[in-house]
Amino acid sequence: MIRDATHADMDRLLEMTREFHTHAGLADLGFDVTSMQATLAQLIDDPNQVLLVAEHDGQLSGMVAGVSYPAYFNHAVRMAQELFWWNRDGQPGDGQALCRALEAWAKAQGCSTLMMVLLHDEHREAIDKMYRRWGYQPGEHCYMRRLSWP
Length: 150
What we know:
Layout: E1 2-4, H1 10-23, H2 33-45, E2 49-56, E3 59-71, E4 74-86, H3 94-108, E5 111-115, H4 124-133
Parallel strand pairs: 4-5
Antiparallel strand pairs: 1-2, 2-3, 3-4
C-alpha cells in the first residue's frame, strides 16, 4: 500500500533517509538527525511538498519525496521534482507504485512536469532504461564537486 507519511512514521523514515544518504554518496557530509527530522516534518506538513511511503503488514519499506513550485521562467507553470526515492527493502512493484503516486500528487498540484533524479551509481543504466520505458526523457545532468568538508 502507498500512503502519505505521518509524524508517527518518523523513526522508520529516519532509518530509510540515513540509508539513502549513505547510498547517495553523501556520508562524508554528515547526517544530522535534528535537521532530517525537520525536513521530514516539513515534507509531511507543507501542502507544496509530499512524502509518500510503501507499507506492507504495518512495516514501511520505501519512500519518495517531492516538491511542487512555480517555474522560474514562467510562474503560471507549476513543476514538481523528486527529492529522494528509496525502495531498497520494498516488494516488487513498490518502486513503480511510489513513482506513480508521486506523479498523481504532482498532477493534483497542477504541475505540468515531474523531474526525477538518477543517482550515478551501479544501477544508473537500469534506472535510465526504466525511466525511459515509463515515458521520462533526460532533461539535464547534475555534477557535484566538494568545495569543503564539515
